Amino acid sequence: xxxxxxxxxxGTLLNRDASVASFIAEQYERLRPSLGHIPKALYxxxxxxxxxxxxxxxxxxxxxxxxxxxxERVAMEFLLED
Length: 82
Hints:
82 residues; mainly alpha; 5 helices; 60% helix; 0% strand
């Protein structure tokens, strides 16, 4: 039986901004061979902008990144799964 439910509204329990920033930095490093032509700060900045604090579907975010930065060595589906 469920006795309580917790909701994290506005980053009270989890700092979403810090978590996303950490993920983006780690993703960039993991995929540096495919993303290395993009400055890391620019990749992080643009992905964060396109994400709109989680309100945009990630397939759309990654498809836009691939188009803007002419990413050829990694597919949108791979980025999405990552």
